[in-house]
Amino acid sequence: MLVREAMSTVVLTIGPAHTLRQAAALMSARRVGAAVVLDPDAGGIGILTERDILNSVGLGQNPDSERAHAHTTTDVVFAAPSWTLEEAASAMTHGGFRHLVVLDRGDAVGIVSVRDIIRCWTPARQHVPA
């Protein structure tokens, strides 16, 4: 199976000036664990994950004043829609992260997560009558 078949095409995009609280609220409303941060001044595309927000709050930082740009991963590993799920899982395992931004011709067209891969690799639950 390919990344294009597993990825979420709902890509939450935020700017670098969003507060962590704003980012968390948007992520929660969309039920996603990561947001793509578009920052042309810092080199283009980054990613802010729920773990980044959790780390900041755990350090006692104020989510109302901390900005996304200060917590964004900018050395992002990108996936191509044509990658296999094995390639995506290998990149995640090697890099120690749970989300890959999927680029097609330089545009963010999706995000694939560990959860997406597991969903594809696990057979659908079947209802067994009691």
From TrEMBL:
Keywords assigned by UniProt, alphabetized: CBS domain
PROSITE patterns for this protein: CBS (PS51371)
Q: Does the keyword Repressor apply?
A: no
Q: Give the Pfam families listed for this entry.
A: CBS
InterPro entries named among the record's database cross-references: CBS_dom, CBS_dom_sf, Diverse_CBS-Domain
Q: Where is the CBS domain?
A: 7-65, 72-130
Its domain of life? Bacteria
Record bears the keyword Signal = no
The protein's name in its UniProt record = CBS domain-containing protein
Q: Which organism is it from?
A: Streptomyces pseudovenezuelae
- Species classification: Bacteria, Bacillati, Actinomycetota, Actinomycetes, Kitasatosporales
